[in-house]
Amino acid sequence: MGMGMGAARGGAGAGGWVPGERWRRVLFLALASVSFLISLILLFLSAPRLRLPSIAPSTAAASAIRRGPDAPPCLAYLLTGARGDGRRLLRLFLAIYHPRNRYVLHLSADAPDDERRSLANGVLAAAPAVGAFDNVAVVGDPTAGTPVGSSGLAGTLRAAAVLLRLHPDWDWFLTLNAADYPLVTQDDLIHVLSSVPRDLNFIDHTSDIGSKEPEKVQQMIVDAGIYLCISLIGSPWVILNRQFIEYCVLAWENLPRILLMYFNNVIQPQEGYFHSVICNSLEFRNFTVNNDLRFMARDDPAQTEPPFLSREHYGQMVDSGAPFARPFRENDPLLDQIDGNILKRWSHGPVPGAWCSGRKRWFSDPCSQWDDVNIVRPGPQAVKLHLYVNRTLEEAKSSSNSCRR
After folding, report:
1. Is 58 a member of any domain?
2. Which residue, of 67, 168, 294, 296, has the fewest CB within 10 Å?
3. Is 60 inside any structural domain?
4. What pLDDT was estimated at residue 4?
5. Where are its TM segments located (predicted)?
6. DSSP element (H, E) containing 104
């Protein structure tokens, strides 16, 4: 894999190419560069968002947020759903909302505009802090939502570009689907991640594809030096640091753009693109943790997809210490159990945190008023999360199933 980066950086180790082959290679890289630059311009300039209604953002509120290495981390979330997922996406959003964080909500192109507007209206009605901190965007011109084909990856890169353009001050980029749900509060998560090096990337990956290879990945030599990287797949749900996202979106080297051209033509590119880029990048491959920080039940190892979670999984799920779990059915009673026992979320508002200063009454939301958003107050589940993250980091140091060198 080390050869891949050398080739992508400008042809190091490319001796032996005959003149005709060298010119074809140069022409391919030039076309790839032009194509990527055009795509990049479109990413930054043609990513409209729905304006959340009526309330102007507060400069004082936004400026009160401390940023930087000595401040609590800022998380940038991409929440995705398909037609009919508007209510699920709103519930997920309220379960993970915090004024310090950034959010992009994406309902796929098959969802009607009315559903997108209803989602935008619901966000502001349920979480008034959104209007003051201006930290939520609802994508107004979405891509298709199918996991098959290039549209899902295009939507993810587009959302990442929007977050870089609107809010270039976050630390990690997290992807969640309407079938996901948190098992910790944002106070818990921010508190634990405060002690984690911010150059790490949590991305589940493997090169042991086995029988899945013909179905998901078609091996093809796009460059003789990066052949091996195409054999990586993993979880499409990732937690990536801002520097790596900038590397993929801005692509100041050839590797991200060459692999993007390749993965635009595979069946499920989100299960291989980021994994292949990071494991073949000299700059980032030693900062990977081979875990996506999700709990999923694997009742039958032969199943390609995990089963829906139910109440029988509750104890195992909570004891795992993982910050997120999937997949859940819409309005499953298990979600109410998580809201009541772990998140302490009630009514139709966000999960209360240290930032909420209002009184908790049956007719009022404590998060309709707020105080210092730089303070977090971890709860009991933070202890399990801390142990889970520490164990994951220790395994990353000793595991051979990683792209670290």
Report:
1. no
2. 168
3. no
4. 35
5. 26-45
6. strand 102-107
